[in-house]
Amino acid sequence: MSKEKKESAANENKGLDRRDFLQGSATLPVLGLFGYALHKKASYDKALREEKVAEEQVQEDLQPLNIALLGAGEQGYVLLNAMLKLPNLNFKAVCDIWEEFNLKKTVNILGKYGHEVNGYVDYRDMLEKEKDLDAVVIATPDFWHAEHAIACMEAGLDVYCEKEMSNTLEGARKMAEAARRTGKLLQIGHQRRSHPKYIHSYEHLLTEAEILGRIITVNGQWNRSAQPQRGWSSRYEIPQDRLKKYGFDNMRQFRNWRWFKGLGGGPIVDLGSHQIDIYNWFLGSNPVSVSARGGHLYYPKDTHEWYDTVMVIYEYETPKGPAQAFYQTQTTNSSQGYFETFMGDQGTLVISESGSRGSLYREPTAPAWDEWIRKGYISPPKIQEMQAESEAVLDVRETLAPDEHKIPIVFNDPYHLPHLSNFFNTVRGLETLNCPAEIGYETAVAVLKVNESIEANRKLPFSEDEFHV
Ligand SMILES: NC(=O)c1ccc[n+]([C@@H]2O[C@H](COP(=O)([O-])OP(=O)(O)OC[C@H]3O[C@@H](n4cnc5c(N)ncnc54)[C@H](O)[C@@H]3O)[C@@H](O)[C@H]2O)c1
Q: Of the candidates 34, 60, 86, which is a domain's last residue?
């Protein structure tokens, strides 16, 4: 079926969408709402069933792709779980230097799902022997990304490569250049770029509705509990010569590579890059300066070379005016987890990849949001909350807390599924990449300079040229 035909089949079967349902219930008077809602619900369920049938048909028709997984550790496993839910992917090969454990485990798992895959320790063997691959998904440690991604693209494969694009800007630049030179796709694993909640917020709330007005301040965090170092069973130890060959001094470093200089970038790169990527996306610009403080406040330097606690301030000159963004990552207390908050002169957006977290708060002086409620872009404020607030006796010095509106996007799939789906559908010629090399590169520039600023102990400027390959 052609792309146009698929889209028209899906549209014809959509009938009533979720937004219609929200819109209807938000504008009706209370009397008769129940009966109306039941009727609407039946039509809504029917529409959903028809939509599902149309989607299944579209999925059956998707071009099959032969793929390989390069790096089958924790994240490789997470990606695999998501990919096994996607249609028409034929796994052909897995490559991982941990032959004794991760490689064997992954080959077995895929076998149980009916994929007869060849296992490889060295990616060069895989590329030499597997001649009918279309694409590869890379989830090796950051310091391997450039070599792996470039070799795969040069071998004619489209590449999905986990973030951080590379642990060095030179590596990231070479990856982007290789994508251009070979004409191959390179998607970087900043998966929020494909998350329906983030896309809805960017397209409908920030761009179309400009619901926050002018964003002046941003803050975000990723707080994580103290964790022991990753261990391993002596039964599955990698021989020393193989560890050395692939850039690791010993098993401890191999298991905890993200804390080591030259291999990873520490928590600010590991965790922060996802969210700083969103700062740039939602603000519509790259930062003009960064000042950061970081330290070894908890873990010893010899086991954790990178900073365990980092606080950053970015300055922006956005199309609407200057803005400042704060970001914190700390690895000793998980309070309030991870989220990003965008504060404008008309409202606040609090958003997170995690669970159902996603709310808006209107400033009391801002124009009403009725239109956006009617369109189903945001939920109406909760009735109980409105009553509770009207009955509360306010101290004259207090400001009434703004109403909370939820982002009405229900998303129960694995976090990485839409981003992987976007990649494979782009390989099939049906979509365009949500995080191509150029965007991954811009984020890498913004994030890797945090560590430089900490080392230099001062604010560092960015020039706009730095962000472009
Ligand atoms: N997008 C996300 O949300 C997210 C989350 C976690 C990790 N990641 C990224 O995924 C990547 C992998 O992280 P992880 O947590 O799975 O690490 P990991 O250490 O658990 O897994 C890495 C795997 O790569 C293998 N490996 C190492 N060097 C190799 C080489 N030269 N050739 C082949 N295999 C090699 C290791 O044996 C291991 O199985 C990193 O880039 C990380 O930043 C992304």
A: 60
Q: Per the omega criterion (within 30 degrees of 0), is the bond before 164 cis?
A: yes
CB 462 within 8 A of CB 286: yes
* Contact call for residues 315 and 461 (beta carbons, < 8 A): no
The verdict on residue 142 lying in a domain is: no
Whether 33 is in a domain gets the answer yes
Can you give the residue range of the structural domain that contains 399?
193-415+437-467
Pocket test for ligand 1, best of 69, 70, 75, 230 (most atoms within 8 A of CB): 75
Q: How far is the CA of 76 from the centre of ligand 1 (A)?
A: 7
Per-residue pLDDT of the chain in tens (469 residues, 90 and over written 9):
444 444 443 333 333 233 333 332 322 333 333 343 445 556 666 776 777 666 666 777 899 999 999 999 999 999 999 999 999 999 999 999 999 999 999 999 999 999 999 999 999 999 999 999 999 999 999 999 999 999 999 999 999 999 999 999 999 999 999 999 999 999 999 999 999 999 999 999 999 999 999 999 999 999 999 999 999 999 999 999 999 999 999 999 999 999 999 999 999 999 999 999 999 999 999 999 999 999 999 999 999 999 999 999 999 999 999 999 999 999 999 999 999 999 999 999 999 999 889 999 999 999 999 999 999 999 999 754 554 555 555 555 566 678 899 999 999 999 999 999 999 999 999 999 999 999 999 999 999 999 999 999 999 999 999 999 9
Total structural domains within the chain? 2
- pTM for the model stands at 0.88
Cβ of 141 closer than 6 Å to ligand 1, yes or no, is: yes
CATH of residue 320's domain is 3.30.360.10
Closest Cα to atom 13, ligand 1: which residue?
A: 75
Give nearest CA residue, ligand 1 atom 33: 96
| Ligand 1 mean position, distance from CA 454 (Å) | 26
Return d(Cα 391, Cα 389) in angstroms, integer.
5
Q: How far is the CA of 72 from the centre of ligand 1 (A)?
A: 7
Q: Distance from the CA of 77 to the center of ligand 1, in angstroms?
A: 9
The answer to whether the CB of 189 is under 6 A from ligand 1 is yes
- Strand-pair partners of 316: 287, 323
Query: Is 202 a member of any domain?
Result: yes
Tell me which of 103, 140, 224 to substitute to probe ligand 1's pocket, judged by most ligand atoms within 8 Å of the beta carbon.
Answer: 140
**Phi, psi angle pair for 318, to nearest 5°:** -85, 165
**End position of a domain, from candidates 60, 76, 92:** 60
Q: List the structure tokens of 296.
A: 């070894």
Q: How far apart are CA 346 and CA 189, in angstroms?
A: 32
Asked if the structure places residue 35 within a domain, the reply is yes
